[in-house]
Write a structure and sequence with these properties.
28% helix, Rossmann fold, 8 helices, 3-stranded antiparallel β-sheet
Amino acid sequence: MKSWVAGLTKQKFYRGKYSQSYQDALLSYIFDNVPPQNIQPYCVEFGFDGSTFHDGGGSNVAKLALEKGWKCLLLDGGHSNPEINLHQHFLTPDNIVDIFKKYGVPTTPEYISIDVDSLDFWLFKALLTTYRPMVYSVEYNAHFPLWAAITVANDPSFSWQGDRLYGASLKALTMLANQNGYSLLWVVPKVDAFFIRNDLIDDGTKNLVLPFAKWGIYTNIKVHPPVRNEERLNCLVGLEMTPDGLEYMVERSEGVIKIGRRFLAGFGDTQTAINYLFAFPTKLKQRLGKLLNKF
């Protein structure tokens, strides 16, 4: 493992200037250690969730564009602003590659950020057929436990309703990334998984990144309200590796729905409670901070 990858555990990342959490600080660290390869570095972010770099839920690429001079493409289903190269499109796995080509995205950009609260897994899968950025980040569903490889089905009509049913589990995304020459580099709790192209961190050893088990504390946690209508859980599908370990199968099963009922609609398991207790001091500190800011 390269020293800078191992050194991630010693970094103290503080909330970024533009991003929802510390994503822009993490990206600065990554690209300080693996310098951009294009003459003008290029990044893409969707869904952008705002009309400018300063509104919405926070942008992963704003610092790269505004402070480092990167060229960027922004895509969102509800916003458009040509001044920052933000274009409105309803993205699906069937049209995403064509839309990237329309706007001239290079096949090896530096960074692509995926966060649509729905078909994240399937958009990631579609892009991997053509685009090989240095780094991908994909929103993961933190309610699923670490061992569950589950995603919502590939249905463009799916939309997030503000509850725990959205996107894909960390394991499902990692399985897909591993199959396509990427490794899980880091997880920003509750929001994004960062995957790096293997050739950028290959040092001739077997352990290119930190053990997957490390990320258990960032899964099986409560972020959004539970699903009230359990019939909606029928959209979940599970991923299983074939016996040769080279492919995965997507399947609907009662077992997958049962996991959904437990972790997306129910109280989870013992580990859910333990993770909640460990997170409680941080939540209390955040609430006290907000209260003090009012005075």
